[in-house]
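Lab meeting, action items carried over

1. Structure of the two-component assembly. Owner: GW. Status: complete.
Input record:
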Amino acid sequence: MVIYLRELARNRKSFIIWTIALLLSDVLMMFFFPTVYDQSKSFNDIIRQFPEPITSALNLDILNFGDILNYFAYVFQYIILFSGIFAMIFGAGALSREEDEKTVEFLMAKPVTRNYIVSAKLLAVLTYLVLFNITMAVGNFMAFEAVKKDDYSVNLLMIALAGNFLAQVTFAAIGFLISVFVVKSKSVLSVSLGVVLGTYFLSIAAAVSDKLENFKYLTPFEYINPADLVKSGRIEGIYLIIMLCVILLSTVLTYFFYNRKNITV
Amino acid sequence: MSVIEINNLTKYYGKSRGIEGVNLQVEDGEIFGFIGPNGAGKSTTIRTLLAFIYPTSGNAKIFGMDCFKDSARIKENIGYIPSEVNYYEDMKVKDLLNYSAKFYKKDCSSRIAELGEVFELDMNKRIDALSYGNKKKVAIIQALLHEPKLLILDEPTGGLDPLMQNKFFDILRAENKKGVTIFFSSHILSEVQKLCDRVAIIKDGRILKVEEIEKLRSNKYKKVKVEFRNGDSIEDLKLPNIVNVSMKNRQAEFLYGGQINEIIRKLSQHEIENLWIEEPSLEEIFMHYYEKEVR
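Predicted assembly:
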């Protein structure tokens, strides 16, 4: 409990900044919906003029801007990118920061096991991800209610949001594992950005090129693509299994390697 | 019962040596000095005891429990002062001490206040605004606040002014009277000499000698300085039992471990300008151990 609470306190500021920034961008974009709605016919026509690779890369091909969920899905794919970065930075920073700032020597001299340290930090990151997603859900629901033209399925909205949560947990878990090996804050940041942006571009590549289609299995952004989720209403089983496996494996390996690690500062 | 028991502990970092075959026993209630030059393996030994790092081979026990399996339980009764103090920079002094206290199942607030007063530490200052010496004070209080049974101190006096050093030593002696065992690592002999009952000398990752301070002091070595009148040199004396020889112009300096009569007899056969025979300082005795190992 001691480390958990300390971890929450330590990251509070940065959590608030990330949440406000992402919520505001999301909600502000939603407030453009009435304008987009009014001109959705000409919008859709213009988009049809675009070359096919561009529309499919940006998920414009399957979206109809006259529909609030479709419009949301378009906006939300960018929010998802930054949510992923946020989750990865939090996940990768939790353990590594103690080593980078050499405070780990203080922590390890306390009567706690390494498992306890990892668990407390995992739990703290998970807590913030849950809080973030609750905030996003409430914010989006209110924005939807404010700008909606017709009825929409709250269910589909929540599934798209849940997809983001799952992707975040996946990135955070990968971040934890990486941070057992990479501890310098600069390297942690670049590796985190690299993984998230890398997988994001993989998802674009998979959408654009048929040859690269199988890349879709390598990128969480494809698993929880909001444009697909608001249509199908479910995350595909295979993707769900992949994400759960990655989360589980990363977590187990984090415990495994962190317990065997020589902590030298 | 031995409080610390180290058996054949070896640690390699990849190919580079940390420590090699270290054996040590620290008994309950003693102040044990651990001395050696920088890079000798003092911190490696301590970090292994605290399970920051794992040994390549060998094992270690504290309070009879395995240092690696039971590390968390052992640490309930350990206070540790690191050689380099690094704390959370967003915290104030009192935040850090309160955070530290929360890890132990007891109320440490009065102890924190008491120690803070002794060391004249401003509790409301931010950690990152503290000088090196003041950070060290925080580390000392942090190590003492839960009244541990064993103190592991890795070069704890760095940055403390002499006045604070004395206060710190007084506290250590008081703790020791209460039964606290102290493992005191340092490269400064005089402070170990002031405080410790026994001392282990470590060099290049190996323990050279474990000795009682009193015995070291009462050792049979004499420091001899001879100034020859003519071109004679120390070799001409053909003396056994001499170490640490240094020759400057016509003046030879060395430690002599044999019978005093014998050296007098040998010396009397030479033309001598000047002669000093005195007690060596502990530093010189240690230098002797170091050098012996080099040869």
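2. GW to write a short summary for the group page. Key points so far: The interface with chain B takes residues 2, 6, 10, 101-106, 108-113, 116, 260, 262-265 of chain A (CB under 8 Å). Chain A has one domain: 2-31+77-260.
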